[in-house]
């Protein structure tokens, strides 16, 4: 019997697909992430990604952390929280205080540790900021035991303004003027080892966030979260400890928002209470509802699209301003400024609720649309 010599032929044995060449499907999730990490690092080191592109990618990662963490409450659990920026602010200030006090000369005195230890202590500082944000989330979770919907939204908005007002009235951390010094911390990391460390930490933080949320919603706790979303009373009747699950879910979501805040502070090198207003929470809400309630894939995709939209408006708005002045639509002396993007973002949320309330993905994941991706959703 003759056997055809075909280099591209595939042999199916026992239901397994084997090829003579490289097959991406044979790679595990850690291997794919490692390849992506090495490629990103090489692009940053060689200059293929300039500082502006790196900054956009870093904000994209921070937005992914924000959207997926809020999606845990608003999407998976079916609650309606509007004050996610409060937890981001707590994480930003606490982690910044830890790193500045430990490694820089500041108004708090001489540095407590040598700058060579920043690489080891920085993730610990982020962890401390996340734990502080989780504790604030605990205070929000307790009133949520007896409130849902609009009432919880009011509570979370009130918590946001409480946190913001508290920060504004603490002069030791700059008050309304803001707090700085984090740039010296990031510089110390780069001087210790010349790598784009903030890109690295944000990549790790983003992967960790998506992984931990995926594992959580797939666990026994996650099934309880889904039960609360469907019918909280029925879940209680079926012996689900709804208060305990709410507590854990709020603390996890708040802690991850605090992680986003710590990374955000060290990317900018300066923060003030004005960075964590209701507009920041609105951004997170837009990303959650744009992606789809309860969909991790949708939250990731919407965060990426939203970041690109914000950056594109930075260039589109001046172009529109010139065009409208050219055709004499706008009066002389009037200029369309970047403030208009804060009109367009809430408008996007309104249009989304009118024409596609389920968002991009609805409550589905990419593996529901492309079944071959299911192996990548195991996260084992």
UniProtKB/TrEMBL annotation:
Transmembrane regions: 27-49, 55-73, 85-105, 117-142, 149-167, 195-213, 247-268, 288-309
Compartmental location: Cell membrane
GO cellular component: plasma membrane
InterPro entries in the record: ABC_transp_permease, LivM-like
Pfam families per record: BPD_transp_2 (PF02653)
Molecular functions per Gene Ontology: branched-chain amino acid transmembrane transporter activity
Membrane association type: Multi-pass membrane protein
UniProt keyword annotations, A-Z: Cell membrane, Membrane, Transmembrane, Transmembrane helix
Protein's name according to its UniProt entry: Amino acid/amide ABC transporter membrane protein 2, HAAT family
UniProt organism field: Desulfocurvibacter africanus PCS
Organism ancestry: Bacteria, Pseudomonadati, Thermodesulfobacteriota, Desulfovibrionia, Desulfovibrionales
């Amino acid at each position: 019997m003759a056997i055809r010599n075909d280099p591209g032929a595939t042999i199916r044995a026992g239901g397994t697909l084997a090829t003579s060449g490289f097959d991406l499907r044979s790679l595990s999730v850690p291997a794919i992430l490692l390849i992506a990490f090495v490629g990103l690092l090489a692009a940053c080191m060689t200059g293929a990604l300039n500082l502006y592109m790196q900054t956009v990618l870093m904000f994209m990662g921070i937005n992914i952390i924000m959207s997926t963490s809020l999606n845990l409450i608003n999407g998976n659990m079916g609650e309606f929280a509007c004050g996610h920026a409060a937890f981001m602010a707590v994480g930003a200030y606490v982690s910044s205080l830890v790193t500045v006090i430990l490694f820089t000369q500041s108004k708090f005195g001489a540095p407590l540790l040598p700058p060579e230890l920043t690489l080891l202590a920085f993730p610990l500082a982020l962890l401390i900021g996340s734990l502080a944000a989780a504790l604030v989330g605990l205070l929000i979770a307790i009133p949520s035991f007896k409130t849902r919907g609009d009432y919880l939204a009011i509570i979370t908005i009130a918590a946001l303004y409480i946190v913001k007002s508290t920060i504004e009235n603490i002069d030791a951390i700059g008050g309304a003027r803001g707090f700085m010094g984090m740039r010296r911390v990031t510089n110390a990391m780069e001087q210790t080892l010349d790598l784009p460390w903030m890109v690295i930490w944000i990549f790790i933080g983003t992967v960790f966030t998506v992984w931990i949320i995926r594992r959580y919603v797939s666990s026994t706790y996650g099934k309880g979260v889904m039960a609360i979303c469907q019918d909280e009373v029925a879940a209680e009747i079926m012996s689900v400890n709804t208060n305990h699950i709410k507590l854990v879910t709020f603390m996890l979501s708040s802690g991850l928002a605090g992680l986003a805040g710590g990374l955000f502070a060290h990317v900018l090198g300066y923060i003030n209470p004005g960075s964590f207003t209701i507009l920041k929470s609105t951004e997170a809400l837009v990303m959650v509802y744009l992606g789809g309630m309860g969909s991790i894939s949708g939250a990731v995709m919407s965060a990426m699209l939203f970041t690109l939209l914000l950056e594109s408006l930075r260039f589109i708005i001046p172009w529109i301003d010139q065009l409208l002045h050219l055709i004499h639509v706008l009066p002389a002396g009037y200029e369309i400024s970047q403030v208009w993007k804060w009109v367009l973002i809430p408008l996007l949320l309104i249009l989304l609720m009118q024409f596609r309330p389920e968002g991009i993905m609805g409550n589905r994941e990419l593996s529901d649309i492309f079944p071959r991706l299911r192996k990548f959703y195991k996260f084992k």
